[in-house]
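Anyone able to model this chain together with (5S)-5-amino-3-OXO-hexanoic acid?
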Amino acid sequence: MARVAAGTLLTVAPTGAETAKSDVPALPVTIDELVSTAKACEAAGAAVIHVHLRDDDAQPTLDLGRAREVVAAIRETTDLVLQISSGGAVTDSEDDRLAVLECAPDGASLTCGTVNFGADVFMNRWEFIERLYLAMRERQIVPEFELFDLGHVTTMRRLLDKHGEPFGGHVHCDLVMGVPGGMPGTTAALVACVSALPEGATFSATGVGRATVPVMLASLSAGGHIRVGMEDTLTFSPGRPVRDNAELVERAADLARVAGRPPLSPADARAMLGIPTTSGAQS
Ligand code: KMH
Ligand code: ZN
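re: yes, here you go
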């Protein structure tokens, strides 16, 4: 069974790769917008930021120069654990998804299998998953295993069995629930995944769209952690668009306090995830 922590790790995923800035002006895409979002979300209780990059035209990018700028700017202004997305957009090449790891983040997402992604396919071949995993360990980056389906838990376990423990020595996963093509955002699906995790692992859960609140509640009740953000949902409640990422973090922090497991600080998050305090650009 997964390990239960005293506090709740709150991750914010503020941007993603799928939403157009022109459709959602509140989406943070510039470096300034990402920095002010990071500061507001840290103040609201987030400990980790999951970063997707946008270029000057607000299009998704994995440009390494942009990645380094964003990492430096967020590090300068917050203590957040900085997790770069190695998933990028469904159109990104494997080479670009590997190269972005050179930006010296604390952590990086690592999706453990291919999944239908609406009308698209988010491709994650076994050999590529292995390459990403080994590249992260070589660069002292702590992976967060992104699991969109029960079979992805099997693939993560296969990866750990074959290649050993990740950098930092701790396994932390994020159950991404409610993607059209992945597992549903239900308590039953969450429990099925959690039951299959390796001994000592911790998990967060992310509910996409209308699954956001039910998944938060299910995760808290199962001893898990929470990811929220405009990458995953653009509606705060039925018919009410999200104002900004901070209000999603505030609601998650409130629920975590109600559950008796208040938000972890970034320092506590580093200790839990096995991230050295001097990792990445801070060293
Ligand atoms: N944008 C999705 C295709 C990740 O960040 O690692 C992939 C994704 C997962 O968001
Ligand atoms: Zn992402």
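Residues 279-283 have pLDDT under 50 and may be disordered.
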